[in-house]
Amino acid sequence: MSTDSTNNxxxxxxxxxxxxxxxxxxxxxxxxxxxxxxxLAINSDSTAESSSGASSVEVTLTEFKVTFNPSVxxxxxxxxxxxxxxxxxxxxxxxxxxxxxxxxxxxxxTTLEVKGLVxxxxxxxxxxxxxSAAGMTGKLSVVESGGDxxxxxxxNPMASSVSWQQMDKMxxxxxxxxxxxxxxxxxxxxxxxxxxxGFKVFSLTAKVVPWEVEPGKFVDGWxxxxxxxxxxxxxNVGDKIRIVLKNELPxxxxxxxxxxxxxxxxxxxxxYTQKPIEPGATFSYEWTATEPSVGMYHSHHNAQVQVPxxxxxxxxxxxxxxxxxxxxxxxxxxxxxxAEQEVVMVLNxxxxxxxxxxxxxxxxxxxxSLAIGESMVVHYYNEGNMTHxxxxxxxxxxxxxxxxxxxxxxxxxxTLNVAPGERWTVVYTPKxxxxxxWHCHILTHAETPEGMRYMVTALIVK
Length: 462
Ligand SMILES: [Cu+2]
Fold this sequence. Notes:
Bound molecules: copper (II) ion
Radius of gyration: 24 Å
CATH topology of the largest domain: Immunoglobulin-like
Structural class: mainly beta
Number of strands: 31
Distance between the termini: 21 Å
Oligomer: single chain
CATH class of the largest domain: Mainly Beta
Number of helices: 5
Strand content: 35-45%
Shape: globular
Helix content: 10-25%
């Protein structure tokens, strides 16, 4: 459904030809709109400088990638803290300076002191045979040190001694990575099987998997079927539904059907309505769907840990594309009154996954695309612990349903507060072409001194 098909619509060639350039405009617009630049910390009392005066740069090695934090380094003496986050041996070398670390085993870390880096570019690589060819090489930008560009610190923990040129470079580097490829994607459509007794049977397995939240950053993701968010289930009013949940987690769990009308015994609130599903055990939730729902399914056991760590997904009962367009009643100026896309957007801010849209942090978030006059029905789901004012730069959305109930009076909003547990259904029908930033408007959920991050994606209108 939705997010998957959307990804496919946005081919890389489109990005290669035009989107990156357009995205840069969006970046510039976004930076202005977000207004973050004014409060960025630029401080000559660098927190990133050691007592020896060397700047610190973190280098992370994985298969087969080398990532730097920050992504550009100031000229002068630099201490590289090199960590092998991969599964095989790697090292880090700058051949032109004859500087290299020893071979690092998986999980090992070391430091590499480099003196007198000069402004320009230096080539780096992993020296294990074949690894540079596989991608573990590149050029590191060395820029002038901060000097008198400094301003007062805002106290931001991200503060470091960077000039505005360094900051612009870092922001551009991040923006140009969008949409960054990461392993794993959530919200895949979950196929069902029909049982002999007439149930649509959906199978879920809860288990912990390595989840790539942003490029190179793997966390312990608590997943349904190995993905975050869990797979999307679609059913119709009148269906007999059975969800078979196998628990492969290190602790008990249970599954609550949030916003779905089910008998009390199927409400998933252990120990009241059932016993906890212990590790290794399986439990079946079954009921007959009597009402349309924009439902969440999520853990109701140690939920403040399990849900933000990833145990959440969408269950949609009824034809919400049709219901949303019917509720919109032609007000969005859709060309044919048909929704071309349905998008589930799960918001999160806590646990191992952290600030994210559909389990990914910018620049790993998925872009969406539409043509002028087409419509996209978006279901916002907040599975986190904070409210998120979701803002699409263009167009305004017509809010047509709250928590799976169609509104008697749909209303327009370009910024919509989505509180924990809420689902809002919005019809977006663009009128103007461009790459439109789409993000949470709590600014610390969207930007850092190193560029856009976390709850940011884009709608590309052709
Ligand atoms: Cu937010």
